[in-house]
Amino acid sequence: FTKKKELFASLSRQQKPRAVFVTCSDSRIDPTLLTQTEPGDLFIIRNAGNLIPTYGAAIGGSTASLEYGISVLQVKDIIVCGHTDCGAMEALLHQEKLQELPAVKAWLQHAETTVRIMNDLYAHLQGEELFAATIRENVLVQLDHLKTHPAVATGLRRGNLRLHGWVYFNDTGEVWVYDSKKKAFYNPRKRKQKTR
C-alpha cells in the first residue's frame, strides 16, 4: 500500500477499469501479473472454468458483475481468459468424477455447449490434444455466451465494445490470443497458430 499510496488514493474516489477480465478461479492465475496491470485497471470476474452463463440462465455474481462493468463503468474490452491444466475443463471431459461434487456439476452445465462441440467436432482427438482443444473451445463458447447479454449486445452493435479470447499457459507464461478473422489462436510473440 505504501509504495502505491497515490494510486490507491485516486482509486478511493473512483474506478475506471480498462477491461472486464473473466478468468478461472484457479489459484495459479493472477490476472494483474498476467496482464502486467496495476490495481484499478481490471474489473475481474473469476469462477471455475471462466464461464459466463447465457443471459437469463443464471442471474448471479458473474452476470451482475458483467452488467455493472459495461453499463456503469463503461468498460470497452472484455477478455475471456482460459488456461492450461484447467480442472473445470478436465471435469467436462471426465464427468464421472463429479458425482461427489453436485455444485460443480451444476455450474459446469454452463459449458454444455463446449461438451457438445467436443463430442461432435473433436471425437478424433485424445489425451492432451483433446484437453487443449477443450480449453480453447470453451473460451470461444463463453465469448458466444457474452453476446446474449443485453449490455454486451448493445455495446457490440454500437461499436464501442470489443471481445477477446485468450488462453494462458501455466508452465510458460505465454498468452495465446484468438483471431476471429483467421479462426485461430496465436502467440503474438511468435505468430504461431492453432486452429480453433
In the predicted model, the low-confidence regions spanning at least 5 consecutive residues are none
Number of strands: 7
- Sheet with most strands: strand arrangement: 2-1-3-4-5-6-7
Morphology call: globular
Give the amount of beta strand, in percent: 15-25%
Q: Structural class, from helix and strand content?
A: alpha/beta
Terminal CA distance: 42 Å
What is the string of helix and strand elements?
A: HEHEHEHHHHHEEEE
Query: Residue-averaged pLDDT, rounded?
Result: 91
Q: What about the largest sheet?
A: 7 strands, mixed
For the CA atoms, what is the radius of gyration?
Answer: 17 Å
Q: Give the count of helical stretches.
A: 8
Kindly state the percentage of residues in helix. Answer: 25-40%
